[in-house]
Amino acid sequence: LRCAVMERTFREQLFFLVLCLSVPKGDSRYIQNNEISRDELYSFFNSELKRETPEQLMYRRPLRCLDMVAVEGQFTFTVEHPQLSCAAFFMSEPTEVISVDLDSVDIDCRGGDFITVFDGWVMKGEKFPSSQDHPLPLHERYVDYCDAGSPRRSARSSQNVAMVFFRVRGTGSSFTLTVRKHANPLPCNVISQSPEGTYTMVIPQQHRNCSFSIIYPVAIDISEFSLGHYNNFPKRSTPGCAESGDFVQLLGGNGIDTSKLLPITDLCVSFTGPTHMKIGCDNTVVRMVSSGKFVNRVSFSYRLLDSQEVQTIKLNNVEDFCFNN
Ligand SMILES: *[C@@H]1O[C@H](CO)[C@@H](O)[C@H](O)[C@H]1NC(C)=O
C-alpha cells in the first residue's frame, strides 16, 4: 500500500488529503479498488488549471503514478522504480470528450505490464457512468494496450471523464500519452468540473438516461424543467414518478456509481413549489430518464455547501442516509 498525504489546495482548504492507491491483489488488469478520493482529484485538477499554456504549444510534462490531467498535452511516464498500480484521471468541460493516444511505448506486456484506458472513472470500485447509463457494454469501455494480437493505441471517451490504469515495472520503461479534447455538442453523462455552476441537460428524443454528477455536498436549484409536451414547473414526489416514462431524479450518496445512489426526490410534471434543496452527500446527481418520445430538458444551478450548512443538515436530519456511515 502506497500512501501520501498532501495539503488540499481546493477553494475551502477544508481537508488534508489522504492519498492511498492500493495495490491490487492478484493480477487483475482492471484495477477497480483504488482508494483515491475526490478531494485529491480536485487538488490535482486545480493546480493543473493554473498552468495555462499558449495554444500553439503542446503542453508537456511527466506523468505521475497517481495523476489528474485536465489539459491537453503530452504526458510521459518513465519508471524510476517498479510501479504496480498507477492511475491517471482525465477530465474536460462537460461539452467535450477526451481522446488518449499512446506513443513511444516501451513496456513488457508479456512480463505483466499493462496500460489500460477506461471510458469513464473508477473510484473505490465504483464506475461513472454506471453500466446502466453508459452506451457501451462494460468490456468495451476498457482499451488494453497489451491486448494479444493487436495492441490498441488510442481510445476516446463517451463523456468528459476518462482514465488510464497502468503497471510498468522495468526500470527505464516508459510511454507517452497524448491527451486531446473534442467537442461533444450533446453531452449525456457528465462529472462537474467544479462544485458550483449552472447546467442545462437536454435529451433530444432519445431513449436513454443521462446523469450530471457533482461530487460535493451542494445546494441545488432546479430553475427550468420541461418534459415532452409539458412545460411546467416540476412536480415533486417521493418515492417516484417511474410510471411516467420521462422524469428527473435527484440522487445522493457517497460513491460515484449512480445506480447505487439513493433517490432524494423524483421530479415529474405540474408542480409549483420550491425546488431548492441542500444535499449533504458526497455525490449529488441530477439524472434524467428519457423515453425517447420527447425532447426533455432540465436546468439547474448549484453551489458548494459550507461546513456550517453541512453541520446543520446533519443536526436536522438524524436519519439522513448520507451521514449514516
Ligand atoms: C433508464 O432508467 C430507467 C429507470 O432507472 C430504466 O427503467 C430504463 O431501462 C433506462 N433506460 C435505458 C435506455 O437505459
TrEMBL record:
Cite a single Pfam family from the UniProt record: CRF-BP_N
All residue ranges annotated as the Corticotropin-releasing factor binding protein C-terminal domain in the record: 190-311
Domain of life where this protein originates: Eukaryota
Bridged cysteine pairs (disulfide): 65-86, 109-146, 188-210, 241-268, 281-322
Keyword set, alphabetical order: Disulfide bond, Glycoprotein, Secreted, Signal
Give the location in the cell.
Answer: Secreted
Q: Name one GO biological process term.
A: hormone-mediated signaling pathway
Signal sequence span is: 1-28
Domain Corticotropin-releasing factor binding protein N-terminal: start-end pairs: 58-182
GO MF entries: corticotropin-releasing hormone binding
What GO CC terms are in its UniProt record?
A: extracellular space
- Give the family from UniProt: Belongs to the CRF-binding protein family.
Biological role: Binds CRF and inactivates it. May prevent inappropriate pituitary-adrenal stimulation in pregnancy.
Q: What is this protein identified as? A: Corticotropin-releasing factor-binding protein
